[in-house]
Amino acid sequence: MITIKVIPLNPINSFNKCFFSCLFRSGGIALLILANFPRLVYAQSPTPKFQTVQTIPFKTQALQKNSPSLINYIPLSSNNQIEQQNVHLMQNVTSTLPGPIFNNKEGQLNALRQELKQNANEIKENRYTITQLNFKNYFDQLLQLNPDSFSITKAVYLSEAAFYEKPYSFQEFEASIKLGAELVGQILKRENLSNKNNIALNYGIQKLYTSKNLFVNKQSGNSYLIDKLHYDFDDYLGEKDWKKMFVTKMLQTGSGQCHSMPLFYLCLAEQLNAKAYLALAPNHSYIQFFDSNGSQYNFETTNGHLVSTAWLMQSTYVNATAFKNKTYLDTLSSRKLYAQCLTDFVMNYSEKINGYDSFTNIMLQRVLDIDSNNVTALMIQANYYRHKVIYMAQLVGNPPLKELPKYPDLYATYKRQRQIDNYVKRTGYQEIPKEAYEKWLKSLELVKHEEQAKPGEEKVYQEIEKIKK
Amino acid sequence: MKLILVRECNIRLFFLKEKITLFLIVFFLCTSMISSASCDTSISRDISQIFYQQAFDSIVSEARTNGMFKNAIYFCENAFYQNKLSRNKFEKDLGIMRKLVKLYSNSVFLINEHQADSVNNKLNLSLFHSLCDTVYCLDDLNAYAHLPFQYNFIDPFAKQDWSNMFVTKLLATHQGNCHSLAYLYKILADEIGAKCWLSLAPNHIYIRNYSDDIGWYNTELTSASFPTDAWLMMTGYISPQAIRSGLYMDTLSNQQSIALCALDLAKEYEIDTHNYYDGFIIKCCDLVLLYHSINPMALLLKAETLKKVYIKQAKEKDILSQTTYAEMIKSYITLAKLGYREMPEKMYQEWITGNHKKYENKKMSKKH
Fold first, then answer.
1. Which of B106, B132, B95 has its CA nearest to residue B20?
2. Which of B199, B244, B251, B364 to mutate: most A Cβ within 10 Å?
3. pLDDT reported for residue A124
4. What ipTM did this prediction achieve?
5. Any bridge partners for residue B198, and if so which?
6. CA–CA separation, A362 vs A364, rounded Å?
């Protein structure tokens, strides 16, 4: 007889029993937190905000933010004559001390200020170079992977690990994904499904996203009820904490958003030898898989439904041009997925240094060499050049547009920026109107989506029934 | 004399320098012209074949030189009326519409006026309103109203009278279908220098526009709205495959639009003469396919015509029947590969005339 132990709702109590938490230093309750969040379908994945960035290039910003503010020293006036005399004497003495001679107190203070500023800059620059070196190291490792057949687990690990100051090891990361794959294996076994059939494997992985599952630890014999992976509404854009977008965060907490959830799906699929593909939408990503007849299914990881292409097109505001050019809603090949992983890496780097630098551009060029139509990379590059133009224009005193040809370097950069803007336009990229997006979020009705999803889901269930027979 | 233009919903007054007169009710053509031909049928058929041939040649040269869409439309419709359509009348009607649009554009102010393509946006917007709204014009004595062009609910597929497809008929009666409304938009856009593209959907033609800050948007004249691509795809039963292959929802170049008139010519010819066997229809289809190799309508008409030819040849045991058969199959297969699907008529009616305010392009609707 199997005894089922249900993990209590209070996450603090369940902390010790959780099996994922041991894998990560930061703890957390992986895949275990039971919470009844309403389902959300659409979510943001890390995509640069095109044409809206106003930050100044890294170095200048750092200077402005961290310049130490010193208050002028004003000695308190005293009635005591002796004290005044002492102060006077002290001033005389200090002026005769060895070292640089200053005419007045102001000069001394200024020198001190400058020294402090320099120190702050040096510290900042050191930190910057350390970050850059760290990222360069990881980027080299990423480049060693073969674009046409690479391990998505490895790629995701490398792009995320670079962001942490004390990264966990790849073994830890892989082990937790293997644990997830083991759970899928148990689900398939319980349902009498073959672990070699592609649609059955995908069905098993989707179970993690749609319902609670029983996990039996083979060594200890204990059973755990594991909650479904759910959507984390808190800071899903990663504005406060960029790490919210990471698969690592998802493994730690059991909740993710539309960037981490599909990637986790892909990692599981890789472990299980299932075939599933990533597909992109503006500010969004989801999973595509195919049955034996070649019919395509779209699995929306954030709400656990199978959805139609037309519905995705409507909800994510993709136009026919972008669709035709395969900018969005297209099955990503291994090569394109690799480029997308590199782009994620570039975005992590930009977030870390809070801006763009020449290394960003070098990385972007590598991405575009692999996939010249990667719209995210093109958008970051357009932003990079926009910053560069602003920065260079500031150096020569913000000349009007007509006078740009007088400054060859600036003009060349400006032209390059326009060129890349046009590349972005050609892909069919189009911003979602804010009102449309907000209204859509508000009008989310669960029932409607279930209706939308019905035909696809029924088809999959039919297939599953066939396999069982 | 000063002329004031008043917008229907949002009243703004503007004084205009130009002085115009508007002809509101246009009396026009068609029935009297067609009935005149009543002598010997065989002779008249021969003559009309000459007219069709002339029109075809004109369209060929117009397409080759990437000329004017307006001319191609005129050639095409004139052939149906046996060269009795007045060019002056056609030009005059267009002239009035052009003036109206220009006046309207003077009275429109966009939210953001200083972008590179502001003028283009303004012209497109004025064109849309001039076609789909009642526009008032005042002079010192009189007020004039230009009524909107409307969807012809009586005979939208031009089954009773093929001329219901025509732009000239639309100008005369102010009633048309997606075909004539979209063509009129394109003609006027060319006249006033606005950018727009014709775009195909199953049994349907609509307008696509591009603006820098909005991106691509659709203009649907039959219901006077700006539907989103996803709505068109969902309700028009357009398969993702058909969009990827460029069969539907892609923009047509000017040359392709001109060539498309050859297809209308072929259909006129079919209705007029029911002669599938002299090769004229296939010639027209080939012209369309020369400039637009995946035009679904041309591919379909070609395949259907070849089918009829093949059946006849098979009956007569012609040697050529095998080659005709091979060609027919080739056309059908190309269509199937590109993702072509038929759509029932009832479904189509609901689609075109249904209420799609819900699915409008939010950014575009807000602009007015």
1. B95
2. B244
3. 80
4. 0.75
5. B207, B252
6. 5
